[in-house]
Design brief:
The complex is a heterodimer of chains A (about 80) and B (about 525). Chain A has one domain: ACP-like (Non-ribosomal Peptide Synthetase Peptidyl Carrier Protein, Chain A). Helix content of chain A is about 50%, strand content about 0%. Chain A has 4 helices and no strands. In chain A, α1 crosses α2. The longest helix of chain A has 15 residues. Chain A is globular, with a radius of gyration of 11 Å. Chain B is of the alpha/beta class. Chain B folds into 3 domains: about 240 residues, ANL, N-terminal domain (Rossmann fold, 3-Layer(aba) Sandwich); about 80 residues, Luciferase, domain 3 (Roll), CATH 2.30.38.10; about 100 residues, ANL, C-terminal domain (GMP Synthetase, Chain A, domain 3), CATH 3.30.300. In chain B, the strands form 7 sheets. Chain B has a 5-stranded parallel β-sheet. In chain B, strands 12-13-14-15-16 form a 5-stranded mixed β-sheet, sandwiched between helices. In chain B, strands 17, 18, 20, 21 and 22 form a 5-stranded antiparallel β-sheet that branches. Chain B is globular. The relative contact order of chain B is 0.09. The chains are: A mainly alpha (about 80), B alpha/beta (about 525).
C-alpha cells in the first residue's frame, strides 16, 4: 500500500474507529476534531512502525498534520 | 467597585482604551473594541427579544468572536452557555434543549452541524453569525449585521446574583448537567485570582482551555480585571507541543494556565529548552493532579518561574491553592492542594457529616462567594450538593459538597486523596464513569457494562470498558465505539472495549470493577 492509503486507513480504522467513515484527504483533521493529542501520538508511533520513519518531535506540528495531504507531503522528505 | 463580570471590561476600556484585550492568531481587539462590540451584540440580542436570565449558546471554535460573545451575552442580561465545538451533535442538541436556548451564536463553519441539530425539534429561534440561507428553520443574523448597531452601553439593571454562565459537565445519570454561576461567583474567583497572581496591564495571559472548561474563566475575567491581554490559543495548536512552545515565545506569554497534561507534553515534546521564555513569570495548573516527578522536572527546566496548583470543582471555581516553591528530590509524594483562597471557608466532614478532627480524612466542603448557584433544572441534585449547618441556632451556613476526600497535613496544607464517587479526570476532563456505562447500556445489544480508569503513563487516566452482550447478539467493539461517539464527547469514549462472556463478581454478585481495572492495568504493563 502507498503511504497515503496506509495513513488514511489508520486514521479511519484506529482513530475514527469506523472503517466506513468518510475522510476527505484535504479535510482539516484538527478543525474537525478528528485528531486529538492522544491520536497524534498514536499516529506518530504508527508511522514509525509501519513506514519506518522516525518523525522528530519538532516536526510534530500543526502544518505537517493538518490533513492527510499535508502529512503525505511532509513525509516525502524521508 | 465591581459587581458584574462585564464591568471589568468596561473599566479597563476606560483605563486602557488602546491596549489589547484579546489576541487570536495574529488578530486582536483593544479594550475599546471589545467593549463597543460586546455592547453592539448585546443590543442585537435585546432586539431579538432576549430577556434577563435567558441562556445563550456559544457554538464555535474559539476566536475574537467568541470573546465578544461572552461579554455581549452577559451585557444583554443573559447567561452564556459554551457548547463544546467537538462534542457529538446529539449532546449539543441535548444541552440546547435542557436549558432552553433560543439564541445561538455561531459561525459559518458550524452550518452543517447546526443543520443536524435542527433535524430534531429545537428551541433555537435566532442564529447569530450565520447569513440567511434556505433550509434552516430559524432567523439568521450575520455577524456583521449583529455588530452594525449602536455601541454605547445598554444600561440594563443587573445585580451580582444574576446568572452569568452555565458550564455543562459529565453527569452520572447519563446526561450532562449544567453548573450555574452568577456574576458574584465568577467575580469572586476572578478578583481573588487577579490579586493572588499580581496580574497587571502588562501581563499576557494564555487561554489554553476550551470555553466550556472552567479554567477559561481565569483567562478572560481575571485578565480583564487587570487590563491584561488574553492570548487565545487556537484549539488545533493545543495538540502540538512544538507549536505551543513557539506560541509561548512569540506571544511573550507571562502567565500560563492549563491542565498538567499540556505542561507535561510541552516539557517532553515541546522543545522548551530552546525557547526564549523570559517573559513567563507564573505557571498555574489545575484540573487534575500534577505527577510529582514531572513537576519536579519542569521546575528544574524553568528555574526562574513560579508555580501554583489551583484546586476546585467547577461548582466552586477555585477554592484552594498552593504555591509550589520546591519539590524535594527524593519523594514522589503528591503535592498538596494547599490552603483556602481568601473569602473561602473550608470544612471537612466524615461519612456521618460530622466535622473530623484536624488531620483526619474526610470530604471537603466549601462555603463562600465562589460557589455555584446550583444545577440547571435539577433542584433535587442541587439540594443534595449542599450541606446545611445550623449556626447559633439562628440561621444556616450552606456549604457545597465537593465529593473530594482530603486530609490536612502537618504544614496546614490540604492533600487530595481521591473521590467519594466514581468521577474521574482524563487529561483534565471530568468524566462520570456511570455516564459511560449508561451510554453503553443504551445499546440494544448490551446486557451489562463496566467502565474503569487506567493510567496513561503520561500523568493522567484513560478509560477502558468491558461489556457482556445479550444472548444471541454478535457485535464488534467498533460498533460500540460508533454507538458511543453519537453520545459522548471524544475524551469520554473508552480507549478499548472488551466483550466478555462474564465479569468477575464480588461476593454479593456485583460487577467487580476493581478486578477488571487490575486486569487491564496488568495487560498495559506487559
Amino acid at each position: 500500500m502507498d503511504r497515503r492509503s496506509v495513513i488514511s486507513d489508520y486514521i479511519k480504522n484506529e482513530i475514527m474507529r469506523n472503517k466506513n467513515a468518510k475522510l476527505d484527504e484535504s479535510e482539516d483533521l484538527l478543525g474537525a476534531g478528528i485528531l486529538d493529542s492522544l491520536a497524534i501520538l498514536q499516529l506518530v508511533a504508527y508511522i514509525e512502525k509501519s513506514l519506518g520513519i522516525q518523525v522528530p518531535d519538532e516536526d510534530v506540528q500543526y502544518d505537517n498534520f493538518k490533513s492527510v495531504n499535508a502529512l503525505v507531503d511532509y513525509l516525502q522528505k524521508f | 467597585m465591581r459587581y458584574l463580570l462585564t464591568e471589568a471590561v468596561t473599566q479597563s476600556a476606560e483605563r486602557y482604551p488602546d491596549r489589547e484585550a484579546i489576541r487570536y492568531s495574529g488578530g486582536s481587539l483593544t479594550y475599546t473594541e471589545l467593549e463597543s462590540r460586546s455592547n453592539s451584540l448585546a443590543r442585537t440580542l435585546q432586539e431579538l427579544g432576549l430577556s434577563r436570565g435567558e441562556r445563550v449558546g456559544i457554538f464555535m471554535n474559539k476566536g475574537l468572536e467568541s470573546a465578544v460573545a461572552i461579554y455581549g451575552i452577559m451585557k444583554a442580561g443573559g447567561a452564556y452557555v459554551p457548547l463544546d465545538p467537538f462534542a457529538p451533535v446529539a449532546r449539543i442538541g441535548y444541552v440546547i434543549q435542557d436549558c432552553g436556548i433560543r439564541h445561538l451564536i455561531t459561525k459559518e463553519a458550524k452550518r452543517d452541524q447546526i443543520g443536524q441539530i435542527f433535524a430534531e425539534a429545537s428551541p433555537v429561534e435566532h442564529l447569530i453569525g450565520l447569513a440567511e440561507q434556505d433550509g434552516l428553520a430559524a432567523h439568521c443574523v450575520s455577524w456583521d449585521d449583529a455588530l452594525n448597531v449602536p455601541s454605547h452601553s445598554l444600561g440594563i439593571h443587573l445585580t451580582e446574583q444574576d446568572l452569568a454562565y452555565i458550564l455543562y459537565t459529565s453527569g452520572s445519570t447519563g446526561v450532562p448537567k449544567g453548573i450555574m454561576h452568577t456574576h458574584r461567583s465568577g467575580l469572586s474567583f476572578a478578583e481573588w485570582a487577579a490579586d493572588a497572581y499580581g496580574l497587571n496591564f502588562k501581563d499576557r495571559v494564555s487561554n489554553h482551555a476550551p470555553l466550556h472548561f472552567d479554567l477559561s474563566t481565569f483567562d478572560y475575567f481575571a485578565s480583564a480585571i487587570a487590563g491584561a491581554v488574553t492570548v487565545i490559543i487556537p484549539e488545533a495548536l493545543t495538540k502540538f507541543p512544538t507549536n505551543l512552545s513557539g506560541l509561548m515565545e512569540e506571544e511573550r506569554i507571562s502567565v500560563w494556565y492549563s491542565v498538567p497534561f499540556a505542561l507535561i507534553q510541552l516539557m517532553q515534546r515541546g522543545g522548551i529548552e530552546n525557547r526564549d521564555l523570559s517573559a513567563l513569570r507564573w505557571i498555574l495548573f489545575a484540573g487534575e493532579v500534577f505527577p510529582t516527578k514531572h513537576l519536579r522536572e519542569l521546575m528544574m527546566m524553568l528555574p526562574h518561574i513560579r508555580f501554583s496548583n489551583l484546586y476546585g470543582p467547577t461548582e466552586t471555581n477555585v477554592c484552594t491553592y498552593c504555591h509550589v516553591t520546591e519539590v524535594p528530590p527524593d519523594t514522589d509524594e503528591t503535592i498538596p492542594i494547599g490552603i483556602p483562597c481568601a473569602n473561602v471557608e473550608d470544612l471537612v466532614v466524615d461519612l456521618d457529616d460530622q466535622p473530623v478532627s484536624s488531620g483526619e480524612v474526610g470530604e471537603l466542603l466549601i462555603r463562600g462567594g465562589v460557589v455555584m448557584k446550583g444545577y440547571w433544572g435539577q433542584p433535587e441534585k442541587t439540594a443534595n450538593g449542599f450541606y446545611r449547618r445550623p449556626a447559633f441556632g439562628q440561621f444556616e451556613d450552606v456549604f457545597y459538597r465537593t465529593g473530594d476526600l482530603v486530609q490536612l497535613d502537618p504544614n496546614g496544607n490540604y492533600r487530595y486523596l481521591g473521590r467519594k464517587d466514581r468521577q474521574i479526570k482524563t487529561r483534565g476532563y471530568r468524566v462520570e464513569l456511570d455516564e459511560v456505562e449508561v451510554a453503553l447500556l443504551a445499546h440494544d445489544g448490551v446486557l451489562e457494562a463496566a467502565a474503569y480508569p487506567v493510567p496513561d503513563y503520561q500523568g493522567s487516566n484513560l478509560i477502558e470498558a468491558s461489556v457482556i452482550l445479550k444472548q444471541g447478539v454478535a457485535l464488534d467493539p467498533s460498533d460500540l465505539v460508533e454507538h458511543l461517539s453519537q453520545r459522548l464527547p471524544p475524551y469520554a469514549i473508552p480507549l478499548r472495549i472488551d466483550i466478555l462472556d462474564d465479569f468477575p463478581r464480588t461476593s454479593t454478585g456485583k460487577i467487580n470493577r476493581r478486578e477488571l481495572q487490575s486486569l487491564a492495568i496488568e495487560r498495559l504493563a506487559n
